[in-house]
Amino acid sequence: MAAQQIDELINNLYEMVEDAFTMPLGNDRCILEREKVLDILDEIRANLPSDLKMAREIVEKRNDIIAAGKKEYDNLKKQADDYAKQKINEHEITQEARKKAAELVAAAEQRAKEVMRSAGAYCDDAMKRTEEALSQSLDELKQSRTQFRQAIREQEQ
């Protein structure tokens, strides 16, 4: 059935509504012959061009695709949000670890300085005691040598 014939059927329906008796106290309501109207509507539906039927199917498929696309978008967006949150958390953990590492390094450096100071003081003290012991030994050696020389002179005389 051509579009022109469908147009005629729609015009017939339109005329039926215009010519229908109005209901008492209901200017917007009218009485139609149900069977005639249903027959015309069935004929229109049965004779709709196949292009129009395909267009409806395409629209339905498009709506399905849009719904699936929206669902996939929502899933991807959620995954991206989760990934971003994870990276932010990892970044915060990394920053915290760096801060803690810097604190540990500073504490280790401070401890190393203290150990070096203590080691330096210990070495200085040990060298001082060694110097004093050597000085005392030298004095004793000098005294012994002096006594030795004196003993040799006494024997020579």
Topology of this structure?
Blueprint: H1 3-19, E1 21-23, E2 26-31, H2 34-46, H3 50-156
Antiparallel strand pairs: 1-2
Commentary on this structure:
The termini are far apart. The protein has a domain at 3-48. Helix 1 (3-19) packs antiparallel against helix 2 (34-46). It is 87% helix and 6% strand. The chain has a two-stranded antiparallel ribbon. The chain is rod-shaped and about 175 Å long. The chain contains 3 helices and 2 strands, in the order H-E-E-H-H. With 157 residues, it is mainly α.
Order of helices and strands: HEEHH
Low-confidence stretches: none
Q: Please count the helical segments.
A: 3
Estimated share of beta-strand residues: 5-15%
C-alpha Rg (nearest Å): 56 Å
What's the total count of β strands?
A: 2
| Helix content range | over 70%
Compute the separation of the termini in Å: 163 Å
- SSE class: mainly alpha
Widest sheet, order of strands: 1-2
Main sheet: strands, sense, barrel: 2 strands, antiparallel
Specify the overall morphology: rod-shaped
Can you give the mean pLDDT?
Answer: 85
